[in-house]
């Protein structure tokens, strides 16, 4: 049942190239320059007329929402707000019939997300679901939606659900951008073509498994760990930290890299591992200087770099290379080594990887 893997989590991490392909199937058609998603086509006018899109979710799905915020705003120029469903439902949010709520949920059963949907519907908003479990409560409560095709996710720590959520939301952003004309035709086509390369690039990122295991052996006993990223990879840092916390019970925090100097940098000494997602694009010089700041304080640097990188490699204690891709599409790739890192650390600490203490797969109570 675990397909030869020791744990469901590892199996599910390795399924990602295939399930992302499944999520693309019939939707991503680069040769024709088309993205086809019935839930979007049928409601295109609503998306185009919306004043704003609010995305409500919890946990890992909330991190996918943050990635989506950056991508939808950049590609489709529609204002996006991301809310913890648990906060949104209790704070009299500003949402009305001109708004869209996107609810993201792997299980489709999360109580707070379901309550956020009900509230948004009461206020007249159009509610769109991004769920994995077919026929789940959230899939049924929403006006329309797009399924992730991750297949059953058994490991409590979400992995393939996260990358397929980002996949669906990126397709949506590109479809809306096409309709609005907010991306040039050449950029639009380039992103479609690049989307098609993601499964192979995820496969390539998975080949870093042995490298990641070696790093895990060095840091398995660390009491704390920081994760840093900028731009599209800031939510990846948050997700990396959450994965480590939940399955290895090591205290970890994710930050946008530039926030370090506003406080967390005080934590850095020779005992602090810092995982830096350092893609060599939009903010490269900035991320290099963030890495220098950590190095100057003797922090231990584990960097996720783009293939061929030299500057961060020279500064870092350990590097994990991932294939190059446009930064907007990179979270699906950069997440892979962070999933593997948390997995290996948890296994080395003899933790119950698939069933971490105190956690349940679907949180049906608030
Ligand atoms: C983390 C994790 C949780 C869930 C959260 C939302 O690995 O699994 O944080 O992401 O409970 O669950 P769904 O997506 O089912 O609404």
Automatic annotation (TrEMBL):
The active site is at residue 361. Homodimer. The lineage of its organism: Bacteria, Pseudomonadati, Bacteroidota, Flavobacteriia, Flavobacteriales. It is an enzyme of class 2 (transferase). Its EC number is 2.6.1.16. It catalyses: D-fructose 6-phosphate + L-glutamine = D-glucosamine 6-phosphate + L-glutamate. The gene is glmS. Its main location: cytoplasm. Catalyzes the first step in hexosamine metabolism, converting fructose-6P into glucosamine-6P using glutamine as a nitrogen source. It is found in: Cytoplasm. The chain holds residues 248 to 613 of 613 of the full protein. This is Glutamine--fructose-6-phosphate aminotransferase [isomerizing].
